[in-house]
Structures are given as C-alpha cells and as structure tokens.
Amino acid sequence: MRAYQDMVFSTAARLAGNDRQAEDIAQEVFLRAFQHFPQLRDSPTAGGWLKTVTTNLTLNHLTRYRKRWRLFSELRKTAGDAESSAPEMDLPVPDTLLADLGAEQRRALIEEALHKLPQHQRLPLVLYHFEDLSYEEIAIKLHASLAKIKTDIRRARAALLPHLESSGIAADGL
What we know:
Blueprint: H1 5-16, H2 19-35, H3 37-40, H4 46-78, H5 103-114, H6 119-129, H7 135-142, H8 146-166
Helix pairs in contact: 1-2, 1-4, 2-4, 6-8, 7-8
C-alpha cells in the first residue's frame, strides 16, 4: 500500500484543492484499504481501487462542505452584497493547450494554478485532465448538467491561461 500513498494524496489534493483535507481523505482511504486488505493484498487492480475510492471520498467530502458554504454565501447575498453583473469573457481555449506542455512543467504549473481556481471549476477540470473522465461521466459524478460541466471546464482553462502565459508558455492557436 505504501507504493500508492503519493497517488492517493495527489488525487485527493488536486480534487480538494487543500492539502489538509487531502491528508484526512487519504487517511480515510487507507483505513478502507485496511478493511479490504485480504482482497487487495495480491490484487493487480489495487491501484485502480484506491484511485476510485479516493475520488469518491473526495467528492463526497466536497459535497458535504459545499452545502455549508452555499449557506454562508446565501447569507452574504441577503446581507446586501451586490454581485458583479459584468459579462464574462468568452475565450476559446483548445483541449490540447495543457497537453502541449512538458509533463513536469505542466504538473508544477497546474498544481500551482489549481489552488487559485474556484472549486466548481477545479473539480471538473481535474476529473477531465487528471482522472481521464468524459464530460458525461463528470456530469454524473458531480450531479450537474453536461452544459455546466463543459462551461466550467472551459472557464477553468481560461482562468489557467494567464498563469501559463505569465510563466512564458505561449498557447498556440489562441
């Protein structure tokens, strides 16, 4: 199981966007793995099982806390905070933008930039690019419409773009 600890932690950290929460989630994953150790000990699919459990526990964790934050944001709105009504820029960002970077450079830049994204953009982007889920699978996992998932991923890419360009990486075709 030690061979998988980095994978479990990095999966949870990417999805949660918070190392402390990722540590708690990883601990829970390994507690569950311990409970299933006889089946996992010699299983060639142990890594996939751990990744699936990590993803599901992280999403469950975020869903629980999202409801709490939604309450706070609704309270803030009723207290008179006005939201900006400025239209968002619609930047076309190709699916290949992130794939064109070197693996190590991409990892470092994305890890840094992911922490700056709002959760509703970070989750679908991570599930799409790091977990290799389709838009449809992400929509099902996050209980959201397909259009919302596509929009959130597009906006997350657009939010990553200034960070990538400030690092000296030119995005061809933009």
